[in-house]
Amino acid sequence: SPVLPNAWSCALIFLTITTHILFHLMCHWSLGFKATCLFQPASRMKAGNWVWLTPHANKGKADICRLDESEVTLKYIFTFQYQGYEVVEPGDEDPDLIHG
């Protein structure tokens, strides 16, 4: 039919839509795939960066959390599994830490 597009263009549209759907599903299913495709490593921490956290077995599932700066302590904080955490960078001393 003269109204229908070329067979190659139909195949290319199908391939594009399928790839797009698979990309979104892989980002939902695999945290490693999402981290590889959508994020890049950083040399130092700053507010607005994202951290990838993987807990021990049977202690929850991995997640990617956003770093924010605390208004009280001026250190970096993030929320993982409904708990707030404060980042202690290497070389910093924190009297609240055990053996630290």
TrEMBL record:
This is Uncharacterized protein. Keywords: Membrane, Transmembrane, Transmembrane helix. The keyword Membrane applies. The chain crosses the membrane at residues 6-25. The lineage of its organism: Eukaryota, Sar, Alveolata, Dinophyceae, Gonyaulacales.
